[in-house]
């Protein structure tokens, strides 16, 4: 009589889904280890090297913090959009524009630091929001997929930054080839070389978590994202919320760009976004769009990126890192599906 | 069932159609059954269509007409029974198989490529289309076909530019050009003007005069009597009868369509001490919604149940949207307790005390991926204690969800689990209870028992009488005449976006309602 069988649930339990995520990361590292072992390396030594270089010294941890910060911003940007069902693939572009606006303010607006710095932050966030404005309105009023529109604007932003950094805003001192002069105003340091962009990012993740879980507005966003039809039926202004949330998403990515240019790099240069926008998509997906989860998945991603830099010194190519991130996504996708299943005892079924 | 009388004597049929005694039917369905999970769509259906015959297929919505025709055209495989074409049993695994055997269908919603020309549409997916084609050649071939089949079309015209009548001719040409002997038309006149309908009838008569046959699906009884030789009535997936059209009247057809044994459990009678209908609560004044609703005037009184009958898709969905603020009328007014709510919006209308059990629960009643708690508070999250100022309290929400689930008698193992994990019946009970809490003045219940089992249906009906007894104005939209007759004080019948008449349920005549559902005005039917 007693039998077991698998039952597919229409949705996964959060706890099980989280477990599947953790297992998928471990599996991805395991596969990467096996492959590097087959190629004649010692995966445990490499792993130990990555861990000790990242966490074994204060410098390692500071480096990690600098990598982590932009990933939190872009991860949060994508996660916020996902909350209302919008895919912001354009965090990369908004990040660039945020950096562009902040650098512009720093280079060309004279004034005391207490005035210029807030202006940079505000300008960068505004720039990020402006960069997603057209895709937002197109989605809200003409139902144009934001996937394509946000993605395409990335290239425009990237090339714009390349252009100003090598052309009109090129460092006049002649020392640098493809960057602006060092910005006269910087984000103050918080801990070692880690600037205030990091604690602000963490605080923002917490604020967003509270906003989504514990406010009426957050509830309305959840309903709108899950079923716009039900939201309209309940009298929730779906379109207005969509516009607000998407602009917020762009502003957060823009803010990430501000912190990067004025905190980490100090100059505006081509490729300043360093793919953080695209990595943010992965961070958000791994976090299942939960703001606090973004902190964890951004940290994981930062360790992997940092590991790649370290592995390079051991004779592996940076592609190893891409392979590991790819494996994590692959296993997460499989784990997501498997988390839908549960084992049930056939005799224990209720009517 | 009058089985013997239902199957007409075949010799007599051939004789009256002017056929030789041995002529096999062009197509025959013998004992066809089709079961979907939990639903018997067709059971033991017999149908014979002879050369030269226009055979009408009649039945209420959900009677199994579409399933039967989908079986006949190879979209579905029958679970039992057989299809016999010109004397030989056949199985069709696709509509292409069926059309090769000479059976083609024109669906209610045309399947034409709007951006292509008429000639291109006619030649699309046709094995006799030449490998090398040019516009001029396709058009010439189409013109030749049209002339031969006597259907006036313009081969070079783009389909999107054509009227519905013209598009229908293209569809028919498409089917006939593939040498169909049996043409199935699903509610062909629903989209036509009376003049176009007459043109269609002339074309159909010419088609069958050449020894072909037509199966004509319709709700319009007068048309069926005008065009058909014989009529087969389906009810609940089974044959009710096959009759000569000349032996039928609109009244007798309506009776066969809707006249099942209706179990009348009178829920209209109030318990002692409960007042009957009071002052008007919800009033619609000459409401119109562009293209869908026309000139709708009705009022629902406090403590009254107004039933809305009609075949689904005749404007009921839009009527509900208008009454709950989800849509604004293009003209006319909607009044709640005398206040104009035509443009108030769904949130305000709900706040004013109008509940809404929506027609399509998953599309608008719940957010299926969110938790039971989040769905339970959908109507009251703005109010204390769930919200205090801008703050949302998950704990207060859970409390409210527990209360709603308790009242709905739904056992919920985990309120954080997505609502889609609940059965449809339990979802519906939760939605109904949620709406009852806010329905202080009125409730609009659209097909509340659709897809539910008997127990859940009874529960739903009890909820509605409970509200009525509290003095709430109840609007019950349903396809189930039984349900409407049991519960409603008055029944409004909708057809093509209009109210055909409003009758008191106590004195309602089933034939009458059936005729109104088929598009006849009350004054003509009475």
Features:
A: mainly alpha, ABC transporter involved in vitamin B12 uptake, BtuC, two-stranded antiparallel sheet, 13 helices, B: 526 residues, alpha/beta, Rossmann fold, disordered N terminus
What does this structure look like?
Chain A has one domain (42-315): ABC transporter involved in vitamin B12 uptake, BtuC, CATH 1.10.3470. Chain A contains 13 helices and four strands. Chain A has helices spanning 14-38, 43-55, 58-83, 91-108, 113-142, 146-166, 197-214, 216-226, 228-233, 238-265, 276-286, 291-313, 319-338, and strands at residues 4-8, 189-191, 194-195, 341-345. In chain A, helix 2 crosses helix 3 (58-83), helix 5 (113-142) packs antiparallel against helix 10 and helix 11 (276-286) packs across helix 12. The longest helix of chain A has 30 residues, at 113-142. Mean pLDDT of chain A is 89; it is low at 347-351. Chain B has 20 helices and 22 strands. Among the domains of chain B are: 3-102 and 179-258, 3-Layer(aba) Sandwich (Rossmann fold), CATH 3.40.50; 280-366 and 439-525, Rossmann fold, CATH 3.40.50.300. In chain B, the strands form five sheets. Chain B has a six-stranded mixed beta sheet with strand order 6-7-8-3-9-10, with helices on both faces. In chain B, strands 16-19-20-13-21-22 form a six-stranded mixed beta sheet, sandwiched between helices. The longest helix of chain B has 16 residues, at 194-209. The two termini of chain B are 28 Å apart. At the A-B interface, helix 8 and helix 9 of A face helix 12, helix 13 and strand 18 of B.
